[in-house]
Amino acid sequence: MNLSKQQTFSRRSFLKTSALASGGMLISFNLFTACKSDVKPPVDISQLNFNDFNAFIKISDEGKVTIFSPNPEIGQGVKTSMPMLIAEELDVPWEDVYVQQAVLDTENYTRQLAGGSQSIRLGWEPLRQTGATAKQMLVNAAAAKWGISPSECKASQGIITNPKGETLGYGDVVKEAALLDVPGEVTLKDPKDFTIVGKNTSNVDIDKIITGKPLFGLDYKEEGMVYASVLRPPAFGQILESFDDTAARALSGVIDVIVIGEKARIHLEGEKKNWTAQLSKSDKVVVIAKTTWDAIKGKKAIKAVWKNDSELESTESHDKILLDLLNGEKFDTRRKDGNVKKAFANADKILERVYESPFLPHNCMEPMNFFANITPEKVHLVGPIQSPEDAAKVVSDMLDRKLEDIHIEMTRIGGGFGRRLYGDFIYETAEIANKIKKPVKMVSTREDDMTTGIYRPAIKYKIAASIKDGKLTGYHLKEAAVNINMYGLIPNFFPAAALENYQVDTANYKSNITTGAWRAPYTNFLASAEQSFFDELAELLEVDRVQMHLDLLENVKSNPEPNIEYSPERLQGVIKLVVDKSNWGKTGPDVYQGFSVYYCHNTHVAEVADITMENGNPVIKKVTCAVDCGIVVNPLGALNQVRGGIIDGIGHSMYGELTFNNGVPQSNNFNSFQLIRMGQTPPEIDVHFVENDIAPTGLGEPTLPPVGAAVANAIYKATGKRLTKQPYINNMDLEKVVG
Amino acid sequence: MATFNLKINNKKHTVEADADTPLLWVLRDHIDLVGTKYGCGIGQCGACTVHVDGNAMRSCLLPVSQAEDMSITTIEGLSEDGNHPVQQAWKEIDVPQCGYCQSGQIMTASAFLNQNSNPTNSEIRDAMHGNICRCASYNSIEKAVKVAADKIS
Ligand code: FES
Ligand code: FES
């Protein structure tokens, strides 16, 4: 969708203005009904029924603007970039804007979710319309004051000017503006006139972060608050049988020891079971204490007996089960073009490879925690959560409280990566607070966090290609996954539509280990598998790796197919850009390059990794990345996201692995789980954005998936070894360094 | 429970705590200095880094009973208004993503630059290797340490 021309919108129904008693004007708007993930922009605002408001702009008498940013901030920068869109169209100096995290409006709550890199894509139009509408009302008020037509006025940088050159600040007209009707139509800026969007803008919380101010859930405190530490089953498949809390109760800092689980089961077994409720049904022992340390110590002193409730699973058995599934016949066919079977039967050559990935914990830097205080009037919950709406529903169901009673405040989030889409830690905290009738903070230790997670499940792929007369004739992708298979759009990603014969099949195994979304779900490994496979395929076909992709995309362009997700033109665009910027094929003999390209989360990305060999070990020197995410709202934040995704992708494909033995996770802290560190980070990550006027898409996830293959393909060039199983370090005869 | 006298950010504090309580939790829960973060509790991540007599230390590994008579500086006391050269460099480069690890990163970097104000790239990488940033803001951290070094020298 091209937004270079100006557009008009009607938004009468989703904005409401009011005058504030304290002076100034409040503009309330509803963003999230317009931003549901299944709504494709442009959103027809007039079709939406807005009777509730969950985001606000406040303009004071002095013309200062406060924007209440509604989406949870998990480090992806939306707390900065979403208000930038409003401020752009409102046309105020960014320095006059103050951004505050909005509270979840529980009376009429709607979509408030950080996940899937969708915030910016979906907020692009509604947020700009909101800003433009507010500006129009201020202009209308000024025009009325001067007795002229609004079209004769100009507004910019918070100042309205009439033809005589007289000026009024926004603050001078807020009182009058608040009383005006919301205009039916406003005009959005031409992107070339943007003054805030596209400019480097610092994180709005930067001053608080660098001075250590309370910002995160773990920092939140209330008078009289106690601390809780939860003892959960040590193995998936086990439940609590009995426990002895004598030693714990003897500790001076321990206030009480309680058991929870009953309320969670009400929800888990009920009809309203929500997808965010990934909880063990076991009873759990909770130590209530005066401080965090007292709670942690108290928990260690509990002697619990656990019994087996279902199978205790191990990585070895997962490996076998998933491989059996891949080699078996029981698949769901997710997309089928042409006749793959026939293509394979007629082939002169077939390339078939299996790619394997392990379970991964999220390891958010801030461990799971939440605050709750439950009174007859109100259920007050505060903390880091990516899906507050769903959390409110679940708490309402499990505690049998009216939804209006549930009040969730979101703090800044010390890392999400998908983990905080699930509310298990809120549901536990709510159950604890409901029982002890005191304000309480539940704190998970790192060990709790890593061993009772909602993991990325292990997934294996078998990819096969058929070749006839030196040409690629068929492509068959099979997935065997723990718990849930790839989401519905993925079979329509590249190379769908590039080949006449193409098929995607999936099979799964239900495990009792809790699993869920992890930064770039499915594609985080699928991209590694497919892009490694294409590398090998190009070699077998004796064609240039990059040219093969460009040609396949040319096929897509000449046989346009509505049922694909990616744009062949935009994929070709990023490929050409990365080839140019990385000096592809033109580096010296000591530098080995690996190429990878991928589309996901509406963004197109190509990457080249450069490695050298030092003392027989591959060292990643540089990653060049070309991204097409449409208009870049905040280049500074965007660069952070792109780099973060790439390094995260390198770290987890190289080192990340969580294994299980009899249901017990075999890593529990950073001494047994390797996260990438400074010394393993490529010194240079060279990022290039495709410049265009297309509406922006997200950046939190899409640069992660392709990088694993870029690295594996470079390592192949350097060592002659094809890496197919993650973490790659296990297959490289290298020492696994922790710490 | 015992009583401990601590000197934190040039102020005296008296706390009642078990002798084995890590300084980290004394700072966070007893004294309300929550800028020092909990990440692992076992000395692996650096989120809890403070200065003890000018040296970077992991407050999760330091029992309160051993922290008496030492001069402890936390992120809140690193400067008056966030104007320490390292804080300023962090702001200039816009280092933080989620921000959770950053006070530990800043405390490690500032102690390091105190000892070596003109470091090479590889010295910076070595000095910062012990601090995990799950958001992987490592390239920005490296750059910010260089900027801070320029400001200091
Ligand atoms: S919390 Fe102290 S090093 Fe991680
Ligand atoms: S900024 Fe998120 S962990 Fe470092």
Automatic annotation (TrEMBL), chain A:
Cross-referenced PROSITE patterns: PROKAR_LIPOPROTEIN (PS51257), TAT (PS51318)
Domain of life: Bacteria
Segments forming domain Aldehyde oxidase/xanthine dehydrogenase a/b hammerhead: 211-313
One Pfam family matching this protein: MoCoBD_2
Listed name of the protein: Xanthine dehydrogenase family protein molybdopterin-binding subunit
TrEMBL record, chain B:
Keyword Signal: no
Pfam family, one: Fer2_2
Residue intervals of the 2Fe-2S ferredoxin-type domain: 2-78
Keywords annotated in UniProt: 2Fe-2S, Iron, Iron-sulfur, Metal-binding, Oxidoreductase
Highest taxon of source: Bacteria
Alphabetical list of SUPFAM superfamilies matching this protein: 2Fe-2S ferredoxin-like, CO dehydrogenase ISP C-domain like
PROSITE patterns linked to this entry: 2FE2S_FER_1, 2FE2S_FER_2
InterPro entries referenced in this protein's UniProt entry, alphabetically: 2Fe-2S-bd, 2Fe-2S-bd_dom_sf, 2Fe-2S_ferredoxin-like_sf, 2Fe-2S_ferredoxin-type, 2Fe2S_fd_BS, Beta-grasp_dom_sf, Diverse_Oxidoreductases
Entry keyword annotation includes Translocase: no
Protein name: (2Fe-2S)-binding protein
Organism of derivation: Flavivirga algicola
